Amino acid sequence: MGGSYKKKQRAEKAKVKLKGAKLPKGLNVTKTEFKIRKITIKEQLKDLKYVDGQRQINIKETLNRLKHHGSNFRLESLRKLREAIVNNSLDILGCLNEIIQGVVSMCLDAERDIRRESFKTLSILLESLKEVSIEPFFHIISSYLRCAMTHIQPYIQEDSLLMLDVLLDHVPSLVAKHSHKIFQNFLEMISRVRADGGKAGRMLTVNIGKKQTNVKWRSKVLLRLQQMLSNLVSQRKEEKDSRGAFTISGGKQKNPLIFNANVPQYYGVKRSSQNDLPCDLSNIFQRTIGENAMPGNLLIHEECNQLKSYVDHLMPLLLESWLEVRPQHTSGEGTERSINSDAAQALKIVSEIIADLWFLIDIHEEQTNNHALSLWFQDQYKEIFALNFVQTGFPYELMDGDKEVNGPENSVNKKRSRKSNLSPLTSYCYNQNICVSYIMCRFFAGNLQIQAENFSRILKYLKGVIDSMDPKREHDYLSILLKALKSLLFMNGLQMLQTHHEGTLLLLKSSVKSFLSHKFGDSISSSTLLLLLCEIIQDSCLYKAYNCQELREFLEFLPHLLLKSSISESTLLSMVQLGKQQNEVFLSTLRQLFSDVVRNLERIKVNGALDVVEGKKHIINLFYWLNPQSVREEDLREITSNLNECITDERLNDYCHYVLTLNFNRSSLTFGDHIDTTPLPPPIHRTPLAGFCRIKRMAPTLVLKLPTSSPIDTSNQEAYPSLLPSPNQRPLHGLSVHPKVNGDRF
């Protein structure tokens, strides 16, 4: 080794060394003089599409390169296509079929980067087009989506969920329309048909060799299924609202109807969304659902079978998914309630899917006026649900080790949740427990006494949630909480008071106190709770059964909403209903704020009304239900004289004058007085049937002397059941059966 090294060293030294001569001192400097020649442009570009310097794309060549065998060519073509769509340099509508076919086909590509790039391009394409333009080609998109969801490669299956996210973001109505086609593919991703013939149905599959666990994979798939069902629920609600809204013919202000008792009245019922088309009433009496369904109800019958198949296929898989991750029975105290983060996420998704199934059944049954489907759902799964979700450890909470990792204050958890489309978990699992409570109310509606112990725990838990609410923080469980409260306090209120009187009453008191202390935060949740409390009060049996001071405080608070800058129309309609029922607590507070409400009429805004005038008419209608003897005539005359200063709108001014004039006329009525039913000459914006309101609010024992020329025939009281109350009619709130007779009031 040493000898060879020395030989090489001697050979190197023997080589001839060349030495170059050094340049003189003046020549070793770099020259900076360059010879240039000017380029002269004779004329500028006249075509504007080339001025911005953007590269021009040949659409045919770009689409052909999407089929190139080289992955870099396909990736670059997708980027060029997306850039052209953003810059509006292509006539998209002219070749929309080829573009959609080329972009969507890349979702089946073997390269992960190309699949993700195709989803970005598809998102930009859907964003730049209207839904009407996409609808003729959506069958192409859904076909490739279903192929990707059932692909043999697991990575393509996983990325197909990202494609579904893009469609749910941009074209939710089209996804809802084709949801029955996509639904079966969700089942294929997490389950298979049972091989043994003894049991029909499906069973969960176990995927070995994947990087993620089976629980996380099912959570991802079921989360997209829950999002699709929630989207289907919202679309069905929009269709129901647009289809179910009716108005009196004539529109808003084109042809207002004036009631005239001396002339026959004809009211044309038309859809509000299509005022020029009459309502289709051909199938109004065809409500049969089953084998004997009439041809007009084939679509409804098909929808019923579709919902039933959803329940039949999903419920066993959802129960099996929860049984796999739920806490096991142990002897230690409290261990059954503690669940890990995977179990909490699975419980949240499973409970929300079951709740969405109930929402879809409710919408269907409201349209068909048939409750056979919900009764079948209750009979099949109510006992199984109560056993596996409530009796085993309700209410649930995260384990101590997972609280630090999954707490709401952990920013890393929030970022990870946004990236994986999974909602961040809270340590007390509010969403999961409240959703389980709501589903229990739906399964055992009408039979709450069967699960008395479980509902006692539910009442106690919901009261604790409401009491611990922080008004400064946003809560994402308010929507389902309000649904659970409505089911417990209103729909099953009387039955809950019989079995759990103290717990139900405490829950109602906590709800009213939380509303008055503004714990529900946003206006939508507060308005929903307000309407729920108004519905409870309007039900005379429930109102008497609760009979708590908190409801009286709520009634005293309601008129103060008329002094704010805005109020919803639904809240006003609830107030009008309370006025019709002569609720004394509500009317006494309104009487005290009478003058302030009149002064605020010009400033207040009614949200949801057809127009400004119609919305404020609801407020003025409240004045009619005030007992005229309880308001001093001097105050009424003073307010009437100052109306021109308070209300500048001539239409509102005339209408308010008219309503107050009705109060003046009623203030001098005594028993046996003659009442003229001929309407007074009102302003043109008078509401229909205003002349009959005087007769409608009279006490049951009041004697009316109508003239012989009256348009109402009093000999047949059954012809006018709403105008002339029967002696056996139940008195309204604030009215007694035998009213006192004195000089001041009825």
UniProtKB/TrEMBL annotation:
Polar residues bias: start-end ranges: 713-729
Primary location recorded for the protein, binned into one broad class: nucleus
Compartments reported by the entry: Nucleus
Pfam families in the record: Ipi1_N (PF12333)
UniProt region (Disordered), positions on chain: 713-746
InterPro entries membership: ARM-like, ARM-type_fold, Ipi1_N
Signal peptide span: none
Keyword Cell division belongs to the record: no
Keywords: Nucleus
Cellular component per GO, a single term: MLL1 complex
Domain Pre-rRNA-processing protein Ipi1 N-terminal intervals: 134-229
Superkingdom of origin organism: Eukaryota
Family according to the record: Belongs to the IPI1/TEX10 family.
Protein name: Pre-rRNA-processing protein Ipi1 N-terminal domain-containing protein
